[in-house]
């Protein structure tokens, strides 16, 4: 025994190792450790979706004032109820009800510490020895990480790049069995930049109904669309199939550090209550951390008073950045973009390593790109597709141009000679 600790007691949690190994943060930490450290070449973050560090993406003064007002009121220095304070839940119910054909109740809303916590809650609730869940590939790997930690079996259905990253519904049907509890969709899409049409979402709902499962709709990028398809919430189809909507203020208001998210039961038939899933969410929140009460206190003002011109400005910047990204990537021969991004802050592109010397795969590409050019791009294997890349375009336009230029320089240095 050294320092009073038994050597045999703590051996590390293997589930944590497995969960971290497939997390975006774990991969980004590895890439950041490989940055060149060249002060003359500042690092450019094209690997994760946090544009808040760039001045052009500053949140609205309405949101800032709402936080100040909440603090100065001295009404929100207390603990919150586990599911969140009533005014915040009422405001979120009203906000989401604008886009669907029925009225949500505050009792349908459960507040969380950002959308990642929403994922933790619902995966933990669904985990049981026999259950499985259907996840998209490519997808947001927090679902896989939480499922690995909770020993919930994961089965992957494909998103089809040639069809705008639509769900391969035949693969969904082939994967599901009597132990399948739910399927996840992310719309607008992370990592694909896709936006599903009304018709496609209706088919998703009908497929889930046929299989006797419900849909978890990750809509953290709600309304961040700039292509031909408008944002359609999955909750529109709640009368066809029960829907759990996950969301937050992180992306639309550009405040990911404020950590305010939600789980909402879009379920006019009451199926989620009958199956006790809603009760299980409440029980989990009783043993979970709450979002800061002062942020909850600011939510009604943020949701009700933010002007459309703020959203229009953010969408315009994202649209222009998506155009820059799509056009510049086409100039790099080893990269192919099968679908121009129409929403969120990302695009998935295919990497052709056969055109490159001394590059083994997407991880090798990203490690050497970080080391040589101080540009961080996420390898596709982190989101389920080997030899693809996820590129974030929600950065300052001049920074985006510089980063994509460095990727082209990197290609020129490593291209296979004829």
Quick overview of this protein structure:
By secondary structure, the protein is α/β, with parallel strands linked by helices. Helix content is 39%, strand content 16%. The longest helix is centred in the last third of the chain and has 22 residues, at 308-329.
Detailed description of the structure:
The chain is α/β, with parallel strands linked by helices and 418 residues long. It has 2 domains: 14-58 and 309-414, Aspartate Aminotransferase, domain 1 (Alpha-Beta Complex); 61-305, Type I PLP-dependent aspartate aminotransferase-like (Major domain) (Aspartate Aminotransferase, domain 2), CATH 3.40.640. The chain has 14 helices and 13 strands. It is globular, with a radius of gyration of 22 Å.
């Amino acid at each position: 025994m050294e320092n009073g600790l038994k050597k045999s007691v703590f051996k590390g949690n293997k589930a944590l190792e497995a969960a971290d190994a497939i997390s975006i943060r774990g991969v980004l930490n590895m890439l950041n450790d490989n940055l060149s450290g060249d002060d003359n070449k500042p690092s450019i973050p094209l690997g994760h979706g946090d544009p808040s560090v760039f001045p052009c993406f500053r949140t609205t003064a309405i949101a800032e004032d709402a936080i100040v007002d909440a603090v100065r009121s001295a009404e929100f220095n207390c603990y919150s109820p586990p599911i969140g304070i009533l005014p915040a839940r009422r405001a979120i119910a009203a906000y989401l009800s604008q886009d669907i054909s029925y009225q949500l109740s505050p009792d349908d809303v459960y507040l969380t510490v950002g959308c990642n916590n929403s994922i933790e809650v619902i995966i933990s609730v669904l985990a049981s020895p026999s259950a499985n869940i259907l996840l998209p590939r490519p997808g947001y790997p927090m679902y896989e990480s939480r499922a690995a930690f909770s020993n919930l079996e994961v089965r992957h259905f494909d998103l089809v790049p040639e069809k705008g990253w639509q769900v391969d519904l035949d693969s969904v049907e082939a994967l599901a069995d009597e132990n399948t509890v739910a399927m996840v969709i992310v719309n607008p899409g992370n990592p694909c930049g896709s936006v599903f049409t009304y018709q496609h979402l209706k088919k998703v709902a009908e497929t889930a109904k046929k299989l006797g499962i419900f849909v978890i709709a990750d809509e953290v990028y709600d309304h961040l669309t700039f292509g031909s398809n408008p944002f359609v919430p999955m909750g529109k189809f709640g009368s066809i199939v029960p829907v759990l909507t996950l969301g937050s203020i992180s992306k639309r208001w550009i405040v990911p550090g404020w950590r305010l998210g939600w789980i909402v039961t879009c379920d006019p038939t009451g199926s989620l209550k009958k199956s006790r899933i809603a009760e299980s969410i409440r029980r989990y929140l009783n043993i979970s951390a709450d979002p800061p009460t002062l942020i909850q206190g600011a939510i009604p003002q943020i949701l009700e008073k933010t002007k459309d011109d703020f959203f229009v400005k953010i969408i315009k910047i994202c649209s222009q950045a998506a155009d820059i990204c799509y056009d510049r990537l086409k100039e790099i021969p080893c990269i192919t973009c099968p679908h121009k991004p129409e929403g969120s802050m990302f695009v998935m592109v295919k990497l052709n390593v056969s055109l490159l010397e001394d590059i083994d795969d997407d991880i090798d590409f990203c490690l050497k790109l970080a080391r040589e050019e101080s540009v961080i791009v996420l390898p596709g294997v982190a989101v389920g597709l080997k030899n693809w890349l996820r590129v974030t375009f929600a950065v300052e336009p001049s920074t985006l141009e510089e980063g994509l230029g460095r990727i082209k320089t990197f290609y020129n240095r490593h291209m296979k000679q004829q």
